[in-house]
Amino acid sequence: MTADREVRMADRELTGVVVAAGPDGRRSTTSLGRAVLAAALRPVDEPGAAAVERSTAWRSDYPAHFRRLIEAGLPDPKSWLVVAESGLAELDRQLRLARADGTEDALPAALTEPAGRSLRTAEVTGEGDPEGEFVLPYRGRRLRGEEIRRQVEAWIAAGVAEPSLAEPVEDVLAHPEWLRLDGVTVAALGAGAEMAPVPSLLRWGATVAAVDRPVPALWERLRRTAGAGAGRLLIPTDARTGADGADLLTEVPAVADWLAGLPGRLVLGTYAYADGSLHLRLSGAADVLGRRLRQRRDDLALAFLATPTDTFAVPADAVADAIRRHQRRSAGTLLRPPLRAVSRGRLLRAPYQPGADPGVNDSLIPQQGPNYALAKRVQRWRAAVARAAGTPVSFHVAPSARTRSVVKHRVLAAAFNGAHHFGVEVFEPATASTLLAALLVRDLNTAPAQRAHPWQDEAYAAVHGGLWRAGYAPRSVLGVAFLLGALRRTPRY
Asked: Which end of the chain is more exposed for a tag (fewer CB within 10 A), N or C?
């Protein structure tokens, strides 16, 4: 590692959006997570907040507390929003804006902080023709028209997606002119991420403002993608050196000033991912960036992709479907009684209580950790609060996919490889990102209805891969899926 590289890494750890230091000087994400969840629960579930504060094994206890966040918000929409608002307010207190001179302020200081440098716009215009129809890559094929309809029907029948997925897909098929997103600029945070919609939008002829770290190889790839497409790629470049990229973690003011000046109706899409505590800090940075932009752009819309490996409220028909699948599987599985006995009931559990309306699906995977869970929950909270305040929001549950971050994780890679044994489909990144890009296009060309309760907005058109309708509680088969997947030499598609 070069000295320059060491300095850049050190700067990223100590400046920008950071975790507040405790009395002992340590910046603990465990303390942050407990404080945020306790604050979120306290107004509506005081015993739940107390249970969070008593937790002494956060990394193993956290799934139960995240589930309680959902349960506490179910009685009425107001409770759901109070949980979200309280959690976001505490996050503002637990994250700090740290400057290079060593001074720090609470995160909202980033709403008015001057930019440390000026960014100008470089542009790459695609040389191709816009795709005149929605084409979905799937298992080596390129699906069109009726093929896409049949595939969506198959996913719905298999319990891989909610029935409501059919409606927005049909709308996009009926309106291919929507794909260009005329008059819209999609700002993609984490533009180089595999689940980001950037390649699809550029093929369709849209305008994308890309935000990602100043890594030359990443920008070379994005420039090639844009050149082969039909849209426009807007790139933040240093006004002095011409270097591409900006680090959201350390440069919220500069990124905000750049995006605020771009033409077209602005959509801020959050797709950035990082390992461990960096992901949580990135979510905080993206959140304050959105608020700063809102001060200057009354046309701002927000876009989020939720992970299905989380805790969600799900419709009664999903509960009934999963119970039927559980009963069928249990009747035909001779190994279930001994496995249940040996595991003291932890393996092959039923996913819901029969008749639950709504049910609570708990698909949190402990190996992903509490920082990942909180980073994704922050985005869900912001989506709910912004939607309630009248901001246009595109929010969709995206399926688990074989991204690089998953493949490099031995346990997750093996578990995903064995997931099909339990009715769960793990998508290829190109399929997932293209499908979700189409849902984004539909949202931006229509005015999605706001449903009676925020959990219903989250559930609409969810592509959860089967986790909501599988016959077993997801964590109760995780170990078995890992063992079955570890036996395969190649991924199962």
From this structure: N
